[in-house]
Amino acid sequence: MNRTTSIRLAVIFLVALLIGCADSDTESTEKTQGKSTALASAPVIPRVTATLPDNIQWLTNDSDPVFSSPKAVKGGMFHTAVLSFPRTFRVVGPDSNGTFAGPLRSNNLSLIGIHPNTGNIIPELATHWAFDPDKKTMYFKLNPKARWSDGVPVTAWDYAYTLAFMRSPHIIAPFYNDYYSREIESVIVYDDHTIAVKSTKAMPELYLRLGIAPTPEHFFGALDETFVEKYNWAVAPNTGPYLLSDFKKGKHVRFKRKKEWWAQDLRFFKNRFNVDTVMFKVVRDYNMLWEYFKKGEIDVFALTMPKYWYERADTRVFNRGYVKKIWFFYDTPVNPMGMWLNQDKEIFKDKRVRSAFSHAMNVEKVIDKVLRGDYFRLSQAFMGYGEYTNPDIEPRRFSIQRVEELMTEAGWTRGSDGIWENQGRRFSVEVTYGFDEHTPRLVVLKEEALKAGVELRLQKLDSTATFKKYLEKKHDVAWMGWSTNLRPSYWQGWHSDNAHKTQTNNITNTDDPDLDRLIDQYRSSLDENERKSLSRAIQQKIHDQAAFVPTFMVPYVREGFWRWMRLPESHGTKFSSSLFDPFDSTSGGLFWFDPALHDQTRAAMKSGEAFEPETIVDKTFKPGVLH
Asked: What is the pLDDT of residue 99?
């Protein structure tokens, strides 16, 4: 996901939770497009242009260091996997917010990007940009070479169409409807390759809000109530290096690199996005995925969990040097991993009970005993944002005494079995999760919680059912994490606008007027220092709600990869939360496939030859707070 664009950043994606269905129909890109869509018979956006203001000071960036490797070569296939098949190929609307949205969204470039090491603006679809003195407006010169994957030129009208598209009620996307109405005032067209994007208010760091992506007007045309169903499996044209080429529902999704991609020789895209094909194989069982990896049928495997890094990696393919290990620290905002309490459930309506629940969770013991001390305790939901983060917030730590105090104050008493009771109700809640490998963590939490008089009933569902249950707000406790933005985003997850209704990210159903006011002020603030102060106040208010139990933060990636997959000398960037992301325009696509090493490795495996085992530990970008 491109970290420069607040439009793409502000939509929160689930971490480690893939959604899907399981039928076995086969479709191709061409067949899907022909069946599901039709070209617009006439432009949706009226072709009215404005006059460009005088004395615009155009900026660009052709001097920041490149971060790809000149040694990279094109070719080959990257074999990876998903745990379930996506429910849709739409990038907006129902069911579009799952992890597989990442590959689809990442192949749609923004106007501008953020350099993953310097943090400076760099070109994407725009070659130049400029700031208006009103601090509400940015001007952009589009690259005239930019093309959609069907060969149609990208023009200013595709950005004007984005505004109409994202505001349409037919896409069934409340966040986009709100954002493009509340935050984006207009897209002004001056000619086919010059536009301005205007915010509804002046603001600091305007570029983080206005780097929007185009939408192909010629593909979608005028929208109506059939949009969601009509485009569910349609593969829309994109501007990035890859296009979804074919799929078999429940089995696989394949992307192919565009051989004549319009941006392939640009400074910050050269020597990137190197493999010809990216194959996502659906492997529903994590243990089976491990077996595929050990056979070389999957090229990369995440070793973040200690049992894989230590025990399971102590196996032939690692010990004989066919597979390498890397432990790479990155420095980005921290994913809020933890337990999300549904305040619409009767048992969690009392804040004292929610606080007691937090104090009954022995997260430190899970870190020490299950996670080998390799993970760090998360303090709150918004860490790693610099001055936007409140450093004074501490997590509620395991304390049976504090649980006793809170529950007694709330009118509960211990039952004969040690579980807290109140008017016939037991303190027994269901924890829903979607990943088998997290079971040992939850088992420890369950055992420790019993000591504090709280019963956890663990409910493991498949990822599709888990995600569905969260969005329908039917959970007691959701065990999950969200991905992050460059700046904290609060409205989606914590504002009452998104409480007590399905298909929103406020899965705690937080409904607090004081918190709403702070969030509204934060969204409307024109002053950066005020926004920082409001952000810290919001975080304190969220902490006081006690509806989120922060668990772990993992500011690194640990991966095993077959030695035929090559990385640059730097291994990654400051933003590289994955070293083998094939698509991300900010820091992805740095790796490549080496056919000579592939053949050498396969031959060595047959003959019994071994190589020197290799474990790489790279702390170049290790966050300062962890040193």
From this structure: 67
Percent of the residues in the chain that have a pLDDT greater than 90, as a whole number:
79
CA dist 69 and 56 (Å) reads: 35
User: Shortest CA distance to 161 belongs to which of 236, 215, 227, 111?
Assistant: 215
Contact at 8 Å (CB) between 304 and 554? yes
Picking from 38, 41, 133, 577, the residue whose alpha carbon sits closest to that of residue 333 is 577
For residue 232, report the phi and psi dihedrals to the nearest 5 degrees.
Answer: -60, -45
Q: Is residue 539 part of a domain?
A: yes
Could you give the CA distance from residue 265 to residue 274 in angstroms, rounded to a whole number?
12
| 479 located within any domain | yes
Ranges of beta strands (E only) in 17-111 are 26-28, 77-82
pLDDT at 625 (0 to 100):
52
Place 289 in a pLDDT band, splitting at 50, 70 and 90: very high
In this structure, is residue 430 part of a structural domain? yes
Q: At 353, which CATH number?
A: 3.10.105.10
Note whether 112 and 129 are within 8 A (CB): yes
Alpha-carbon distance of 8 to 423, in angstroms, equals 47
CA separation, residue 212 to residues 139, 158, 196, 280, 606 (Å): 12, 11, 11, 28, 51
Q: Mean pLDDT of all residues in the chain?
A: 91
- Contact residues for 184 (Cβ-Cβ < 8 A; gap 6+): 163, 197, 198, 199, 200, 209, 210, 212
Report the candidate in 67, 65, 61 with the shortest Cα–Cα distance to residue 122: 61
In a domain, 314, yes or no: no
Distance CA 330, CA 555 (A): 6
Who has greater pLDDT, 100 or 327? 327
Q: How many domains does the chain have?
A: 1
Range of the domain at 517: 337-553
Select from 218, 159, 155 the least CA-distant residue to 188.
159
d(CA 115, CA 527): 24
Q: Is a pLDDT exceeding 60 seen at residue 34?
A: no
